Amino acid sequence: MSSRAPQDTDHGPQRLWSVDEHLADVLAAVRPLEPIELQLLDAQGCVLVEDVTVPVALPPFDNSSMDGYAVRTADVQGASEEFPAVLTVIGDVAAGSGELPTVGPGQAARIMTGAPLPPGAEAVVPVEWTDGGTGGGAAAGMTPASAAPEGAGGEVRVHRSAEARAHVRSRGSDVQAGDLALAAGTVLGPPQIALLAAIGRGTVRVRPRPRVVVLSTGSELVQPGEALVAGTIYDSNSFALAAAARDAGAIAYRVGAVADDAETLRATIEDQLIRADLLVTTGGVSVGAYDVVKEALSSVGVTGGDDVDGSRMDFRKLAMQPGKPQGFGTIGPDHTPLLALPGNPVSSYVSFELFVRPAIRTLMGLADVSRPSVRAVLKADGALGSPAGRRQFLRGKYDPESGTVSPVGGSGSHLIAALAHADSLLVVPEDVTTVEPGSELEVVLLG
């Protein structure tokens, strides 16, 4: 891991890192995961590492897009309800049919949606354009073959003419053999998996979804559903970050809150390394007497050295609000990245969006790793203040129709209710201390 700044010492202050410096440092230590071959459903959410070409045309044969009758166009030319074309029905053509009847002059074949167009036929007339072989008026549907096998024979009256290729899906009208089906870098969602299955691919080569382990720290934390006692609060950070990791494309494992004990936390982290491509902790990274993450990991290089297994951790202060205290490094024999986030709920979530999400997307092999951002006009009752020298991230509500953004809640890093109603982050640059209504700001879109 690179280190471009002095570490904490007892002899002088630590300089502030910029948001961009810290992000660059994180991403410099994160490498895309090695590709593997996965079954289609296991590959959902993964990123393709190779172009996939079409081996066979789709559809692979001319087929009917309607339930009806396969006919020759000359035999139904000029047909009407008053003067229907009367054709001899020579059999059924169902989807999956192998041997097909040949449609000759004056003949028709009952055909089902998706069934191959039989030889001699040039078009399909929908059953609603016929009497359905009943000798009556316009049919509403076909009698099932199992209930009326005689429906495959006899005569049918056709009440409308049909142009050549009417209601016929041509071979290769979807994709042709040799076409590019999906390009490398594509994230596989349901439609992409459907296409892969349709062209006969049972497996695909992808970068797997990263496994992200989330740990929250604090003796005051109680799991939701349990009773609160004096001095305790519910653990929300681990749920928020695990959900955010899933939203970013990862497989998330949430570990119950770890008490403020350095040895316990160190042991928990070591136990989790076996299933982690990335570790995320929340809480315990500031300068308090019970900041357990900093204490637990201080033996793995916080002063600039490396631990015996090559682990290294840096704890630093960033020129941002919220989220000033941050920790980052690699730990364990596989140099697993670990991001230590602050414990206040908003600080934790904002830090995730700025640093952890890009790390997850980098592990996936994606080129675009950060949330999209737009420029928007501030809509507020009064001016917004921001601390000098800090990049501030305020919760906001973005209106794409008007191109405006409104602040939601205050700037406090504990105001989680406001975060739940926000869909964006307002970004106030380091050199700006006051933002007047009507000013244009960068807005990071969270949804």
Name some characteristics of this structure.
447 residues, alpha/beta, seven-stranded mixed beta sheet, five-stranded mixed beta sheet, 8 helices, elongated, disordered N terminus
List the SSEs and their pairings.
Layout: E1 16-17, H1 19-28, E2 36-39, E3 47-48, E4 52-53, E5 63-64, E6 68-71, H2 73-76, E7 85-93, E8 107-111, E9 123-126, E10 155-158, E11 168-169, E12 180-182, H3 190-198, E13 203-207, E14 211-217, E15 221-222, E16 233-234, H4 237-248, E17 251-258, H5 262-272, E18 278-282, H6 292-297, E19 312-318, E20 320-321, E21 325-331, E22 336-341, H7 345-364, E23 373-378, E24 384-385, E25 391-399, E26 404-407, H8 416-420, E27 424-428, E28 434-435, E29 440-445
Parallel strand pairs: 1-19, 7-8, 14-17, 14-18, 15-16, 18-22, 20-25, 23-26
Antiparallel strand pairs: 2-13, 3-13, 4-12, 5-11, 6-8, 6-9, 7-10, 19-21, 21-22, 23-29, 24-28, 25-26, 25-27, 27-29
Helix pairs in contact: 1-7, 4-7
Explain this structure to me?
It contains eight helices and 29 strands. By secondary structure, the protein is an alpha/beta fold. The longest helix has 20 residues, at 345-364.
Number of helices: 8
Shape: elongated
Distance between the termini: 32 Å
The strand count comes to 29
Summing up helix and strand content along with how strands pair, one would put the structural category as alpha/beta
Q: Stretches where pLDDT falls below 50 for ≥5 residues?
A: 1-12, 301-305
Radius of gyration: 32 Å
Q: Which sheet architecture does the biggest sheet show?
A: 7 strands, mixed
Helix content range of the residues, please? 10-25%
Portion of residues in beta strands equals 25-35%
Strand order of the largest sheet: 1-19-21-22-18-14-17
- What number is the mean pLDDT? 88
